[in-house]
């Protein structure tokens, strides 16, 4: 069974993480599928918006560490790298519904979304430094711009988890929604976007993101440092301790 599920409904491509035994941790095949579904949706005129969510009341616990360590060469064809730059190049709007864990990429992916909703079970975390790594997905640029340097430093340098109300207060998410209503609410918002005039919507998104080249440059810098850190003794020790848990 595929760990990434997709269905199209009323102009919205709904993509879900479905690997409950691993708390929806993303392995390289999942990254590959995510990228394929996004690229296909971009080319399909009947698809006008995307929606991301996780099954089993969990968004994603981040990267599958063991799988990532076996494939640590972060060249342009690495599935995770392709996914990150695909996110940056999306022309159609992206909505996320977050329940439960949103760790690492589970939080940084939200910085590329247009609308994000979470329920009270959501727990966000950016534990890159905790694992002797550096941020990815442009988070080292996007997060300080969004929440201010001091708060971004707290989230990235300490790597502690924070709840949905904190994420809302920091403008990382749009609103906190009751758990039983979350998916329906997020889908309804995505459907509203899908019903907007598509060209005007896409051009407006582009105008609101004038710093795309800066983000792209930052992502390249992050990946260069991330790849080097993966091979460091400091990171190897942290990963060994993590995997023993």
From TrEMBL:
Q: What is its main location?
A: other
Q: Where in the cell is it found?
A: Peroxisome
Q: Which UniProt keywords apply?
A: Isomerase, Lyase, Peroxisome
Q: Cross-referenced InterPro entries, in alphabetical order? A: ClpP/crotonase-like_dom_sf (IPR029045), ECH/Chromodomain_protein (IPR051053), Enoyl-CoA_hydra/iso (IPR001753)
Name the domain of life.
Bacteria
Q: Which of the seven top EC classes does this enzyme belong to?
A: lyase
Please provide an example of a Pfam family that matches this protein in its UniProt record: ECH_1
EC number(s) per entry: 4.2.1.17
Is Isomerase one of the keywords UniProt gives this record? yes
| Single Gene Ontology MF annotation | delta(3)-delta(2)-enoyl-CoA isomerase activity
For the keyword Cell cycle, the answer is no
Q: Please report the name of this protein according to its UniProt entry.
A: Enoyl-CoA hydratase EchH
Organism field: Shewanella oneidensis (strain ATCC 700550 / JCM 31522 / CIP 106686 / LMG 19005 / NCIMB 14063 / MR-1)
Q: What are the top taxonomic ranks of the organism?
A: Bacteria, Pseudomonadati, Pseudomonadota, Gammaproteobacteria, Alteromonadales
Its gene name is echH
């Amino acid at each position: 069974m595929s760990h990434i599920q997709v269905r199209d409904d009323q102009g919205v491509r709904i993509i879900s993480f479905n690997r409950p035994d691993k708390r929806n941790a993303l392995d390289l095949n999942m990254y590959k599928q995510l990228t394929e579904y996004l690229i296909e949706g971009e080319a399909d005129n009947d698809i006008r918006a995307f929606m991301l969510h996780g099954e089993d009341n969990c968004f994603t616990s981040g990267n599958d560490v063991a799988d990532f360590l076996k494939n640590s060469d972060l060249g342009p064809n690495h599935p995770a790298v392709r996914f990150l730059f695909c996110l940056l190049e999306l022309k159609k709007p992206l909505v996320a519904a977050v329940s439960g864990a949103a760790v690492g990429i589970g939080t940084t992916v939200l910085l590329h979304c247009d609308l994000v909703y979470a329920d009270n079970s959501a727990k966000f975390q950016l534990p890159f430094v905790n694992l002797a790594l550096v941020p990815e997905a442009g988070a080292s640029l996007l997060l300080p711009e969004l929440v201010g340097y001091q708060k971004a430093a707290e989230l990235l340098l300490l790597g502690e988890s924070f709840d949905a109300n904190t994420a809302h207060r920091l403008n990382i998410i749009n609103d906190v929604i009751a758990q039983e209503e979350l998916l329906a609410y997020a889908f309804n918002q995505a459907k509203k976007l899908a019903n907007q005039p598509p060209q005007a919507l896409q051009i407006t998104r582009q105008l609101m993101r004038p710093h795309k080249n800066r983000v792209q440059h930052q992502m390249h810098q992050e990946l260069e440092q991330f790849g080097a850190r993966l091979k460091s003794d400091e990171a190897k020790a942290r990963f060994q301790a993590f995997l023993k848990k």
